[in-house]
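Morning - zinc ion inputs below, output right after.
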Amino acid sequence: MMEELILKVPPGRICIKDGKCPAGHSLMSRDKLLDGKPAIVVEVRLKGRTGTIYLNPFYGKFEYECDLELAQDDIVALSCPTCDASLTVEDTCRLCNIPMFAIHLPDGGQVEACPRIGCHNHSLTIVDLDAQLSRYYEDEIRFKM
Ligand SMILES: [Zn+2]
Ligand SMILES: [Zn+2]
């Protein structure tokens, strides 16, 4: 049976290794590293400008690098750099009341986060717990060593 739960995990413990757009394109950068791991690369739009944003792949870390200048409280629109599909989802941020965006994970899980710069609301949903958790724990152990 599929199980679904939202985890509360401390920042920096889980590294997203296989983030995808809704159409299944990988969002992992081939050449950009953040904290020593491949960054999540996404197309970003703000006020008519388009750029590229690199997100820290560690869940709960909000560092990013972007070629657009982003200010506190800017609300960005994020999409797949390959197919341009929007990453916006129906769930709204309970703090900002705007739609969240999602990075899809293998086996149906996803990371959702708020697209307002400075808002740190986010959640991690994992489906098929056994398979995913064993993978994550493996990472966590390696990360601590
Ligand atoms: Zn895509
Ligand atoms: Zn928010």
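Note: The longest helix spans residues 129-144.

O.
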